[in-house]
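Holo prediction. Input below; ligand is fe (iii) ion.
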Amino acid sequence: MNADLLVTGIAQLVTAEGPGPKRGAEMRRLKIVERAAVAIARGLIAWVGEERDWKGTAAEVIDVGGRAVAPGLVDPHTHAVWAGDRLADFEARTSGASYEAILAAGGGIRSTIRATAGASEEELIAVAVPRIRALVCSGATVIEVKSGYGFSSDAEMKMLRVVRSLAANTPARLVPTLLIHVPPAETGDRAPYLSDVCQTLIPAVAREELAQAVDVFVEKEAWRVAEAEAMLQAARQHGLGIKLHTEQFHRVGGLEMGLRMGALSVDHLEACSSEQITSVAAASTIATILPGVSLHLGLPSAPGRALIDAGAAVAIGTDLNPGSSPLFSTSMALALAVRLNGLTAQEALVAGTVNAACALGLRDAGRIEPGLRADFLVLQSSDWRDLVYTFGTNSVREVWIAGQRAEEACL
Ligand code: NIG
Ligand code: FE
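Structure of the complex:
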């Protein structure tokens, strides 16, 4: 075999096995190869194994000096495009106001919508580029980015065009999602906006291939189940995937509707009951947990441990956004899931790679395996568990995307 590059000196190479089947039990398999090497040809993994078993030739050899190698992380839930800040909300919350009360009073998400409406596409790109770079530095090689800070079809299209420009600006693979976040400020506007979303926005987004899925926030202060269902039906009719922000504060039926409709993922789940855990486990939908939100808002943590024990497939995301999770590190999200949601290091790695890829409908990401894009991380440590053990500094030394070392890599 002829390779363009052979990476040697890998103390431990860790990867999930298999393409990420739907059921959790199969997804939890992790393979560790000691004293490993990886061969890369034309940006793809050509061979993986013990270094002593390599029999081919390589144009270039790079020795990583006895460090661990892990798959590029997949961040399946971010709101990386926004303008303004939520520092006043943060201060109000630290003085006792709740996230929901701030939203109900017209602040929170709605204040970010106003700030984002006032920014040009160029301004939004300028503020989002360093956020994407921070996620890449922390190990993300596939990143979902949502719209959702718009009260109009034009505003959502603008955000999705920004995501498209960001994708051209980073070696990471960006996966765009149309998020219909909260109804317009005046309550009377719900029905016209809903029909505009179903009849104009979703068809236009599908036609222009501006998003791969549609996400709706189902909550007392956001959309009702019937409204969300109408939007998700429209998404399905136009060939888009569907996902939900649901059971964050209250159980209003979003989770059951999402499972019934075959959503790719149901995200948040901090308020999930034990009966709902059983239903998620029985479904093909991925349960995406967002530990940054629990840390930042002081919410109960999503029942990650119970979900996995019941047989659900769990993914982890940063939920990077200014209001509920200003978390700019995908590896830190994994580290938090171990502490706050009761996952083991192995489960967190699977959740942040192959399961997160499944939450985006991707079967070709999150593993180090021949034929897949050569996305992998060289860690600071010789032991892969350092990825989820360390926090407050970057445990990722190098980020490789499609066989190239990303410039973003921090150290
Ligand atoms: O995933 N809860 C709804 N949406 C986002 C928060 C967005 C914001 O606060 O700006 C979330 O938590
Ligand atoms: Fe979110």
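The two ends are 32 Å apart (CA to CA). That is the main takeaway for now.
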